[in-house]
Write a structure and sequence with these properties.
- The protein is an alpha/beta fold.
- Helix content is 48%, strand content 12%.
- The protein is built from 21 helices and 12 strands.
- α2 links the parallel β2 and β3.
- The longest helix is centred in the first third of the chain and has 25 residues.
- The two termini are 36 Å apart.
């Protein structure tokens, strides 16, 4: 049953190892060939050494190869995993800093809003190259499992233009599922439905979530036959932690009647209501953890994580290799999907696919997130029907922005990219049309090296900005670090709590979805 899995972007700090461990925890997949590839020889070499050590220490028959030659990695692959960050942290910095000068204050900036749209412009052309390689070199019918954001736009482009069946994977549903479970658990203890020390696992609570990635809504939440949807608001408002860290999500729950899967910080930047006035942003966020709404929070922890990994890497090599076992398996979807396809053991998890009348009041072909059922016969998704209207309205606004952004990335269409920016909910709440036009030109010029499809348009963008300065029509840019920006820690700062720095280095790289209780 030997598989070859090509992992593109394998120089990631923790995610590559985490996914490899997950696959190898399945006995039938223990002889998998992992073909790692990355643009950075140094990052790839560091991660590959750790992975090879882990395989050897666990006496597994798996094989690992590492090469900067992507086509070599993809050749004869059964499955391709994509986890790239095109442009790296340098491009990511401009995704956050340039929009901030126009008043657009983002927490994450990798899914929607200005950062997400520019991330798509950089990533989609490269993904289509991956798809070409898969068509030419991988085994017939090879599946592309995409973890790279912006999830919806990337997955949409691969399915529409790449000619490769692509499934988008994200762990947002699992994290929110744990939150709901913890709220029900507190009530169950108070009501003495369970013993004082008894805990619930998220699998004890039946849920259905549906929508689009990072705007997926729990439309079912049941435990022991009881419907908890009507009680979620009171349970979250009563929770000692969530009532402080999830103010945006709770407010949306109060007004919509449905809880969103995505974190407080993520959700706040996809809507027009919570981050448009700098003076009000802190009312809605919490700075105990970056994902609760910190300005540029994800950029900060990614920078800290990468700096710490490079500094602390020798100690990672000295550590005792972790045990690879089912008990240590994470909740990331990829290994469960592969296990189900190979062994027939069924798996149910939420996945991102093109809508084909599954959500009947969202546009067809848009990338939606909903339950998927996997076994040896393939990946199957149910028809959910209509989303609640408020949820559908919010998703629909984002879908059209995603569609324009995706098409702009494929065709190098500056006008369409600017129209996508203009229609983005948060940008539209903050910026005038002329500010949107100039901000987009600024972003295109700043990221020119990663935008081959726009090269012919860049001189005109530069000329427009120079003309605006000369004629006095250049919009006034804002100064300051944002409403809630924290200082990026130096290595010296992080050394004061090395254990925490190491944990953050893995968590910032998506390698933190272990089988445990989550609060985000």
């Amino acid at each position: 049953m030997s598989l070859k899995i090509a992992m593109i972007g394998a120089g990631s700090i923790g995610f590559t190892r985490r996914l490899m461990h997950d696959v190898l925890s399945v006995s039938e997949l223990s002889d998998t060939h992992f073909a790692l590839t990355d643009l950075s020889p140094r990052n790839l070499e560091m991660v590959a050494r750790l992975c090879e050590r882990d395989i050897k220490a666990n006496a597994l028959p798996a094989r690992l190869t590492a090469s900067t030659d992507r086509r070599s990695a993809i050749r004869d692959a059964d499955v391709v995993l994509c986890m790239i960050r095109q442009g790296g942290l340098e491009a990511f910095q401009t995704d956050i800093d340039i929009p901030l000068r126009y008043g657009v204050d983002q927490c994450v900036g990798d899914t929607l809003c200005a950062g997400g749209l520019m991330y798509a412009q950089r990533t989609i052309p490269v993904l289509l190259e991956f798809c070409r390689d898969i068509r030419e070199l991988a085994k017939p019918g090879a599946l592309l499992l995409n973890y790279s954001n912006p999830m919806a736009m990337n997955t949409w482009a691969c399915n529409r233009y790449g000619g490769v069946r692509t499934i988008g994977l994200c762990h947002g549903v699992q994290g929110a599922h744990w939150q709901i479970t913890q709220c029900i658990e507190r009530l169950a203890r108070r009501k003495k439905w369970i013993a004082p020390q008894e805990t619930l696992h998220r699998n004890d609570v039946n849920v259905i979530a549906a929508g689009i990635n990072h705007q997926t809504w729990f439309i079912k939440a049941e435990w022991r036959g009881m419907d908890f949807l009507p009680r979620l608001l009171e349970l979250f408002e009563d929770h000692p932690t969530f009532s402080k860290t999830e103010k945006v999500r709770i407010d949306v729950l109060r007004r919509f009647g449905y809880y969103s899967t995505e974190s407080n910080g993520h959700l706040s930047e996809y809507l027009p209501w919570y981050r448009k006035r700098p003076s009000e942003i802190r009312k809605w966020i919490n700075l105990t953890t970056w994902i609760n709404g910190e300005t540029g929070g994800y950029l900060r922890v990614c920078k800290e994580g990468r700096s710490w990994f490079k500094t602390d890497y020798p100690n990672w090599l000295k550590d005792k290799p972790p045990e690879i076992s089912p008990a240590q398996r994470s909740e990331e979807h990829a290994s469960y999907i592969l296990e189900a396809l190979q062994t027939g053991r069924p798996y149910r998890g939420h996945i991102n696919i093109p809508n084909q009348h599954h959500l009947t009041n969202l546009p067809n072909d848009a990338i939606i997130e909903l339950p998927g059922y996997v076994d040896k016969t393939g990946i199957h998704v149910p028809v959910i029907g209509d989303l609640p209207l408020a949820c559908a309205a919010t998703c629909s606004a984002s879908i059209r922005v995603q569609e324009m952004g995706m098409e702009a990335a494929v065709h190098g269409d500056v006008q369409l990219l600017k129209q996508a920016m203009l229609h983005d909910p948060l940008i539209g709440a903050v910026c005038s049309p002329e500010e949107v036009w100039q901000m987009t030109d600024d972003l295109l010029l700043a990221q020119a090296r990663w935008l081959p499809q726009y090269q012919a348009s860049l001189p005109s963008a530069r000329k427009r900005l120079l003309t605006a300065v000369r004629t006095g029509s250049r919009v006034k840019l804002k100064s300051g670090a944002g409403a809630a920006r924290l200082k990026t820690k130096s290595v010296a700062d992080m050394k004061k709590d090395a254990d925490q720095a190491r944990a953050n280095a893995a968590a910032a790289d998506k390698g933190n979805m272990t089988r445990r209780r989550l609060s985000q």
